[in-house]
Design brief:
By secondary structure, the protein is mainly α. It is 52% helix and 7% strand. The longest helix is centred in the middle third of the chain and has 27 residues.
Length: 428
Amino acid sequence: MSRKATLNFDGKEIELPIISGSEDENAIDISKIRSETGLITLDKGFKNTGSTTSNITYLDGEKGVLRHRGYSIEELASKSTFTEVSYLLIYGELPTKNQLEEFENKIRVHTLVHEDFKIILEGYPSKAHPMGILSSLITSLTAFYPESLDPNRSGNLVDLSIARILGKFPTFAAWSFKKRNGHPIIYPDNSLDYCSNFLKMMFELPSESYQQNSVVTDALNKLLILHADHEQNCSTSTVRIVGSAQSSIYPSISAGINALWGPLHGGANQAVIEMLDAIIKDGNNIDKYIKKAKDKNDPFRLMGFGHRVYKNFDPRAKIIKVAADNVLDKLGVSDPVLELAKKLEKIALEDQYFVDKKLYPNVDFYSGIIYRALGFPPEMFTVMFAFGRLPGWISQWKEMRENKEPLGRPRQIYTGEKSRKYVDISSR
C-alpha cells in the first residue's frame, strides 16, 4: 500500500503521494499541488525541496555518509584514482582495466587546445582571477565545437564532448594560473598520467623542468576525488537547471564554475588561508580570534569549520586530515600559516564550545592547507575545487539529459505593488 500525505485547504482534502528512495529517504510529491489547489510551496534557498531524483550520489548529513554510485567515499579515496572515479560517476560502474585505459586514452588525445585560445588568454588583464578566465574558456569551447549545441546529437558525440572537456579542463586551469603569474604557458605532456600532466603544466617553466613527486601526485588525486560530487549543491543544481534548457555541456559546466566561485560555496578553502594570513598579520594572536569567534555580536567567523549539510562530521575531512598530515610530514614544509592552522585545528577539536557547536574542521579547511603546502596560491584553490567537481557536474548534466527532465522553472510569491496607472513624466 502506497503512503500518502494529506493537505487540507479551504475544506478540500488533497492526497499527495510519498516518494521513497533506495536509501529510504522520503519526499512528498507536490508536482500536482498547484493544478489541484492553486497553491505553490515557498522554500527559500530550496533547503527542503528536492528538484530531481538521481542515482549518482547519496549523502546523509546526520550520519556523515557520502557514497558515489553506492561506493563509500572512504574506499574510493583510498583505492581509486581520480580518472577511475570520474568514469564511475559518469557511466555508473567502476571500469575494468581495459575500459579505464580506453577512457584515459580518449581524454589524453583532447588535452591539447586550439592555438586561438592563446589569443583569448592574452586578452585578459594579468591579474584577472583564474576562475573568471576558466569559466570563459570553457564557454568558448562551443565556438570551436558548434556541434555540441545540438541537443539531439548521438550518444557517441556526447561522449566526445565529455572527453574533450575532461581533457582540456586541466589545460585551461593551468593556463589561467600562468596568465595570473605572467609566465609562458606549458603544453600538455601526454606521456604522463592525468594528475602528473596537470602538475607539469602548472609548475614547469621553460627555464626549469618540473620534478614529479609521488607525494604531491597522490595528494592531488585524493583531493580531487573528495570533491568529485556532492549531490544537489549550489553549483551542481546550477549545472542541471542550465542544462534543462538543452544548453550544451560547455556553458552548463561554465555556469557551475561561476556558482562555485562564490565565497559561500567553493571559495571557502581560499577564505581559510586568507583568514590565517590575516591572523598572522595581526600579531598571530590566536586567542584573540578564538574569543571573537565565540562572541555572537562579533561579525568574525572561523572559515573552514562546520558544514551546512554534515551535522556531526564531514566524512571527507577525516580522510583529508590524514592526507594533510602526511603531506606536511613528507614534504617538510615550514610555513607559519600552516603552523597556525595546526594550532587552530587542535583548539577546535578540543575546545568544548566548538565541540558543542559541532564546529569541526571541514574539507575546505584541510584542502586549503594541502594546496598551500603543494605550492598553489590561494586564488587557485577554487579552480582546484572546480577541477575536482568536474566529473560530478558532467554526470549530473548527462543524467538530466538522459532522463529528459523538464525545463527548470521555479515559482515565486509576488510582494510588489498592485496594479496602478502609468503617470506621465511631466506629472511626476
